[in-house]
């Protein structure tokens, strides 16, 4: 329920279909299908992907920023908020307290760590026109600067779906029918993660748009 709630609440332009089964056969997988290709994430990964997308939306950043953020988090942590890493690295973006990213407690808050990533990204001159791996590396200073590129296709598809450039592109099979109190829990979570960026969820699909730097760009 969490990933569905956050994704649906965070990005109102996304149209969801949910197979709400009553047994243990649900895959707990979410998929983004764009231009005939399907890209999977686990429910937990999709939850964090939604946060990355909604934070960019709240800050008025382009969908290209979401692609970069997703590719970075996929490489650094597999889009999971882990409490370990190389040396003192922790969190979604494997930020290091010793390098001034914040305290361990702060970095382990995905809202904080996502915000800090975007704080760095917007300082990179021309980041929307850079290859994903170059833009990510300018923020992260990784020992493996070319590794982000392997996640670009998946990240573009999810960025496209989460920001509404591709309509009705997301599907989750979570196997969790709604229960009493779920609506209140969803509202509290959305308010915590996306305060000020969400006011309503659209009932119908959005109008498709074309953003050459967002998600799918032939030859990019």
What does this structure look like?
A hairpin with a 2-residue loop joins strand 1 and strand 2. The protein has 8 helices and 3 strands. The chain has a 3-stranded antiparallel beta sheet with strand order 2-1-3. Helix 1 runs parallel beside helix 2, helix 1 crosses helix 8 and helix 2 crosses helix 5. 40% of the residues lie in helices and 7% in strands. It is mainly α and 220 residues long.
TL;DR of this structure?
With 220 residues, the protein is mainly alpha-helical.
List descriptors:
single chain, 220 residues, mainly alpha, three-stranded antiparallel beta sheet, 7% strand, globular, disordered C terminus
The tally of strands reads 3
* Biggest sheet record: 3 strands, antiparallel
The structural class is mainly alpha
Task: List the total number of helices.
Answer: 8
Q: What is the succession of H and E elements?
A: HEEHHHHHHEH
β content, as a range? Answer: 5-15%
Report the uncertain regions.
1-23, 199-220
Overall shape: it is globular
Record the strand order, biggest sheet. Answer: 2-1-3
Q: Span between N and C termini?
A: 35 Å
The radius of gyration over CA amounts to 17 Å
Task: Quote the average pLDDT.
Answer: 79
State the share of residues found in helices, binned by percent.
Answer: 40-55%
